[in-house]
Amino acid sequence: MKATANGAGLDPDALVLVDEADRNVGYLSKALCHAGRGVLHRGFSLLIFNDYGELLIQQRSAAKRLWPLYWSNSCCSHPHGAETLEAATQRRLREELGISCPLQYLFKFQYRAQFDATGAEHELCSVYIGRCGEKIKINSDEILDWRWISPEALQREIAMQGGESFTPWFMLEWVRIWRDHRPAVVSLLT
After folding, report:
1. Contact 135, 50 (CB under 8 A)
2. Is the pTM of this model over 0.90?
3. Is 159 a residue whose pLDDT tops 80?
4. Per-residue pLDDT band at 1 (split at 50, 70, 90)
């Protein structure tokens, strides 16, 4: 596995490798970042609410390499090369959901989740929330299904199933949002 040290001549889809302090330490292809036990890279996760206080969740496409058909947060991805998080989050909102909206940063967390023997996520993930009243236009290459759900109904669904149908990063971030950042969500919706 060879990581590129700088952005010169970089594959535009290369992901940003980071250390635990979120300092850029190089670049690597998406496939290699997710191979084996994963290589720590920068990611982001977006939770979009509607005017009724419901959260948009999506069911990942069957074509996804990691966690296909699992339910997850509204949108998630990675910045590419020298792309800023602000540019990357707006790009992905347009690409996956066909929307644009202001986002509010909540927190950052590091996790590693093994999907199978050949692939894993190992990310330093920045979590944002936003509110959007635009009509959703999903990218069916990325998303199989989607729905709006109230936070309370989501809590009940997670409790009933133990969260087994949800992606691991969504479970980690939702627990923290519900526990530590509920006032930020409430103020976003008022």
Report:
1. no
2. yes
3. yes
4. very low
